[in-house]
Design brief:
The chain is α/β, with parallel strands linked by helices. The chain has four domains: 9-82, GMP Synthetase, Chain A, domain 3 (2-Layer Sandwich); 109-264, Rossmann fold (3-Layer(aba) Sandwich), CATH 3.40.50; 270-338; 349-446, Chromosomal Replication Initiator Protein Dnaa, Chain: A. It is 55% helix and 9% strand. The chain contains 20 helices and eight strands. Strands 5-6-7-4-8 form a five-stranded parallel beta sheet, sandwiched between helices. The chain has a three-stranded mixed beta sheet with strand order 1-2-3. A hairpin with a 2-residue loop joins strand 1 (37-42) and strand 2.
Length: 447
C-alpha cells in the first residue's frame, strides 16, 4: 500500500494519533498510546515501537483500535504491529510482579466506563495505582454486587504491574485468604503464609464483608493490615457495605477501614449503561443490526452491570442459536422473559409525595408548606430527590409542586440527599424502601 500523496510515515502517524486520542479519550491515550513511536510503514504494515513495560499489553488490548484508526485516516486496511510483540503483533499482558498472577487482564482502567455514579471510585483507584501508598491509604470501595468494585481492584493491580517496575502486587479474596490461612495452620507453615501477604507493596483484598464471624482469620488479617499500613504500603479493599455497617467485624478493623478514603459506586444511569454495553460489544466484536438493541437492554436492566452484560450475552446467544439477526425485535423477545417491560403509566409527583409523607408520618400539606422544621425538611428533600429521579418533570416544575420553590432549592435538596446516600447506609435503605413502595403503588393502579 502506498501512502497518500505528500504524506510521510511520521505525518501519517501524527494523524492516526489524533484519531486515537479522539477515540480513547485523553487519559487512556496518554497512558498507553503517547509512548508509541513509528518505526516503518512498509506495504500495508505499520510497525510501532513501544516501551518494554507496555509492549505486550498495547499489542493485546489496542491492536483493533489501532488498525481501525489507521484505516480511518488512510482510507484502507492497515495491519498494525508492535515491535518485539511477536509476528502477529499480539501478545500477552505484561508479566506480573510477584505474586500478581491471578489478575484478570480484561479488568483495566481503559475498559471501565466512567459515569457520575462511579467517578469518585474510579478517580481514587487511578490515583492509588499511579502513587501506591501515597494517594489514599487504605482505599475502601463499597457497592452492592455487580457494579464494578472487583473491576477497579484488578485495574489497579494491572496498572501497577505494567508501570510499577519491581513493585510487588497481590490480589486475593477474603475467602482465599481464609483458606490459605487455615491450610498454613494445618501444615504449621505460618511464616511463609505471612510473608506472602506482608512482603508485598500493594495488597488488593476483595469482599471484606466475609471477615465477619471468622475470629482467627480476622486476627491474622488485622496484623497483616497493620504490617503493611505502618510501613506505608498500599491497601485497597472492597465491600458490599460501608465500614460502619460491618457490625460483625471487630471495631478496631472497622476504624482502620475508615482511616483512608471510603468511596461508593452506585447503579449507573441510562447513558452510562448504554456506554457499558457499547464498550462490551466493541470488545467482543458483536455486530448489531440496530444500535437501539443496546438502548433497549439499558432500559430494561438498571441496577447491576453484571446483569446488564449478561442480558447482552443472552441476546447474542439467542442470535447464534437461531440464526436471526441482532435486531430490536430479537432483543425484545429475549428480554421479555426475564426483564419484562415496565408499565408505561406516568408516575406523578403527587404519588411520590403521598408515599414519602406516609413513610415519615407527616401530611402532604406539611411537605409543600414553608416549614423548615427538620421533621418536615428532610422528607421534603427526599421527595424532591425521588421526583427528579423517577419522573421526567423539569426542575422548575418540581419546585412548583413543592410549594413554589425555585430551581436552586430543588438542586440543593437533591445534593443533600445524594451526599447522605454516599455516607449513610440507613439513608440508602430508606430510599430503597421508598422506591419499592412507590413502585408497588404504581403497579396496583395499573392492575
Amino acid at each position: 500500500m502506498e501512502l497518500p500523496a505528500n504524506l510521510e510515515p511520521v505525518d501519517a502517524w501524527c494523524e492516526i494519533r489524533a484519531e486515537l486520542r479522539r477515540a480513547l479519550g485523553d487519559s487512556t491515550y496518554e497512558i498507553w498510546i503517547a509512548p508509541l513511536e513509528v518505526r516503518t510503514f512498509d506495504g500495508n504494515v505499520l510497525l510501532l515501537h513501544a516501551p518494554p513495560a507496555i509492549r505486550a499489553w498495547v499489542s493485546t488490548r489496542f491492536a483493533r483500535i489501532l488498525e481501525s484508526c489507521a484505516k480511518a485516516v488512510l482510507g484502507t486496511e492497515v495491519q498494525v504491529a508492535v515491535e518485539g510483540a511477536g509476528p502477529s503483533g499480539f501478545g500477552s499482558p505484561p508479566s506480573p510482579g510477584q505474586p500478581a498472577d491471578n489478575l484478570n487482564p480484561r479488568y483495566s482502567f481503559e475498559q471501565f466506563i466512567i459515569g457520575d455514579a462511579n467517578r469518585l471510585a474510579h478517580g481514587a483507584s487511578l490515583a492509588v495505582a499511579e502513587l501506591p501508598g501515597q494517594a489514599y491509604n487504605p482505599l475502601f470501595l463499597h457497592a452492592p454486587p455487580g457494579l464494578g468494585k472487583t473491576h477497579l481492584l484488578h485495574a489497579i493491580g494491572n496498572y501497577v504491574t505494567a508501570f510499577g517496575g519491581s513493585t510487588k502486587v497481590r490480589y486475593t479474596t477474603v475467602e482465599a485468604f481464609t483458606n490459605h490461612f487455615i491450610k498454613a495452620l494445618g501444615s504449621r507453615s505460618l511464616e511463609p503464609f505471612k510473608s506472602s501477604y506482608r512482603d508485598v507493596d500493594v495488597l488488593l483484598i476483595d469482599d471484606v464483608q466475609f471477615l465477619a464471624s471468622k475470629a482467627r482469620t480476622e486476627e491474622e488479617f488485622f496484623h497483616t493490615f497493620n504490617a503493611l499500613y505502618e510501613t506505608g504500603r498500599q491497601l485497597v479493599l472492597t465491600c458490599d457495605r460501608l465500614p460502619s455497617a460491618l457490625v460483625a467485624v471487630e471495631e478496631r478493623l472497622r476504624e482502620r477501614f475508615e482511616a483512608g478514603l471510603v468511596a461508593d459506586i452506585r447503579p449507573p444511569d441510562f447513558h452510562t449503561r448504554v456506554a457499558i454495553l457499547r464498550k462490551r460489544a466493541l470488545l467482543d466484536r458483536i455486530a448489531l443490526a440496530e444500535e437501539a438493541v443496546l438502548e433497549l437492554i439499558a432500559e430494561r436492566v438498571t441496577e447491576n452491570v453484571r446483569a446488564l452484560e449478561g442480558a447482552l450475552i443472552r441476546v447474542v446467544a439467542y442470535h447464534s442459536l437461531t440464526g436471526r439477526s441482532l435486531s430490536l425485535e430479537l432483543a425484545q423477545t429475549v428480554l421479555d422473559t426475564m426483564y419484562p417491560q415496565k408499565s408505561t403509566r406516568s408516575l406523578s409527583i403527587g404519588d411520590i409525595q403521598s408515599a414519602v409523607a406516609a413513610h415519615y408520618d407527616i401530611a402532604v400539606s406539611d411537605m409543600i408548606s414553608s416549614s423548615r422544621a427538620v421533621r418536615i425538611a428532610w422528607p421534603r428533600q427526599v421527595a424532591i430527590f425521588l421526583a427528579r429521579e423517577l419522573t421526567t418533570t423539569p426542575l422548575q416544575a418540581i419546585g412548583q409542586a413543592f410549594g413554589g420553590r425555585n430551581h436552586a432549592t430543588v438542586l440543593h435538596a437533591c445534593k443533600r440527599v445524594s451526599d447522605r446516600l454516599a455516607d449513610d447506609q440507613l439513608t440508602e435503605s430508606e430510599l430503597k424502601e421508598l422506591r419499592t413502595a412507590i413502585s408497588d403503588t404504581e403497579n396496583d393502579r395499573c392492575s
